[in-house]
Amino acid sequence: MPCQPVFSSHPSSLGSLIFSSPCFFRYNQQDKLLLHATTISFSARNQSESTLSIIPNGVSVVDRSIKEEPNSMEFDRRNARSRVQNLVDRIRALPRSERIRIIHVFEREQAFQNLSGFNDVLLALFIADEPDLALNLFCSNISSYNLMPDSWTFSIIIKCHCKKNDLDEAKRVLENMVEIGFLPSVATFTVLINSFCRRGKLQKAIEILDFMGRVGCKANVQTYNCLLKGLCYVGRVEDAYEFLMKIKKSLVKPDIYSFTAVMDGFCKVGRSDEAMELLDEALEMGMTPNVVSFNTLFNGYCKEGRPIEGISLLKNMRERNCIPDYISYSTLLHGLLKWGKIQAALGVYREMVEAGFEVGERMMNTILRGVCRRSWKEEGLLKDAHELFEKMTSNEGCAIYPNTYALVIQTLCVAKEVDKALMYLNEMVGIGYSPPRMITFNSVIRALCSEGRVDEALSVLVLICKEDRRIPSRICYNLLIHEFNRQGRWLGSFMVYGAALKRGVIPHKRPPSNYSSRYEFSIVD
User: Fold this and answer.
1) CB proximity list for 162: less than 8 A, separation 6 or greater
2) pLDDT tens, 333-384?
3) Is there a contact between 53 and 76 (Cβ–Cβ < 8 Å)?
4) What is the C-alpha separation between 211 and 193, in angstroms, rounded?
5) From CA 20, how far away is CA 83, in angstroms rounded?
6) Are 291 and 328 in contact (CB under 8 A)?
7) Closest by CA position to 440, among listed 463, 244, 210, 280
């Protein structure tokens, strides 16, 4: 007689976290922990015949008409996925240190009444990134439940070994599976082929493909796509292209992912034009390129120093109703900045913001530095630099890097906006940024001296000595001495010169030699 669930208001804490249907814990009146498993019948005689149906306890199985069977099977698949996802959520809710207890609970309670429930838990552990626990459960417990693994069990075990990067063991399980009479699905073969390809073990992947053919399992386009990516990964781009052409002539037609894989290979070796030709060929075949296809070309053009071509590609992308994503914009933006295309980068930046994407902190700093440097030659960009800087200072989540802050100050000095430069320098030192480079101080002192504001320039020298606790550069002293001399303020000139000597710096500029001072130098400490 099947076990009936006994409900109580005191569920087991571990059990309640882990199990729902098909497996859940409850206490009966004697506080004995019981495990109830919904009975699931599963049969798979071969690859073409498989049925999965939920059979409630105590209810007999009746034949259903052929007309009703597809809907029933679809319902059962959805129900099975729901059960597995429920288990995954409950396993992930446990701290990692306590997940090993799952195995102990199963061992103590003899949890499984059927293979389907066992497979559900194996799959849940795999999805929850616990392949070791899944393998432990399989190796130590399946025989104790008098259960015989089926094709789906072995498939999950192969996936677990692949996740652990134990590909030789995964291959051994696959071969053993075939030896005892099971035919792995094309998906199982593809998982192993993909794992070998992603690790650059292409020869091993080809061996699995050959083995696949020998046992009568036909590869599909996903299998071939894994091999195309594997060939490109090890630099065999020409072989990948030839393989793609062979796939086009076969019964298994390539898809857009096949073309994208080879396009990526071409772009990585500096052959973006050939990648573009492949995209055109895919379009001629009636395929619809996706955002990954275009992102591959953005990456290729930017690596080759041709980011401007990405602008027309972005337009082409929108014309084909393919919406650019964050990677599209950020790749193109980075390439434009890297190759000094500042005006175009600003245009892409504005479009990116209008599209609702948030530009990252690092990218914002890169844009601002690029705009600042270019504004030294193109005065029209100074306004853009101001806008970017104000936007970043008003956004608490976007920090301005010290080197960016310093470059903004230098840019203001070049633009003769000295008051703002001085204000930002004091702010930068006052809020505890890492000490500005000496060239930043030099820029402010030079800008102040050029306007005859030598006393304020002297305050910057004091800021270096007092707040920053560094020895000013020879340039600082030269600028100040020269301006004091120009204004005929000889005493100030001597004071600065004496301060330099005290700190071990010998300026090139000197006070007038014909001026004799009877005053002691007031050294700036």
Assistant:
1) 170, 191, 192, 195
2) 999 999 989 999 999 999 999 999 989 899 999 999 999 999 888 878 888 9
3) yes
4) 11
5) 8
6) yes
7) 463
